[in-house]
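Pasting as-is:
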Amino acid sequence: MKTISMKKYIIILTLFLICFHSFGQHNKESRDKIKALKVAYLTQELKLSAIEAHQFWPLYHKYQEELDFSKMKIRSEFKNKIKEAGDLRSLKESEAKKLVLLKVALDKKVNEKKEIFISKVTVFISYKKVMKLYLSEREFARELMRKYGKGRKNRE
């Protein structure tokens, strides 16, 4: 009887791991696809020359990775502290204060990274293109949300 239970357990565990791996792979592929679409969209909107693009994209990708890491760090901290407390209402005031101050500190770092990025890219692209970059990033995010929202509504 125990061998049957063990076999069922192994089968269930194997199926779970396969599904988990597939989901993780799909998620990474989705992120990579979105990044590629964003690069194409921004390239078109910014109208970068070949020389500008050659200098711009390595800086932009590094900058985006740093921003993503900072955002992930704060989300992770918030999530873990709230989970440890049980829920937000159960979080101690002192822990909430630490999290808020951590968020403020990370926001300062993000702004410093933006300033550094701007100082580097404005050597070879204009401030108007930097403005266009910010506007285009926002428009790309809106478009993505519109498409995602439509797909989500159709599935429900």
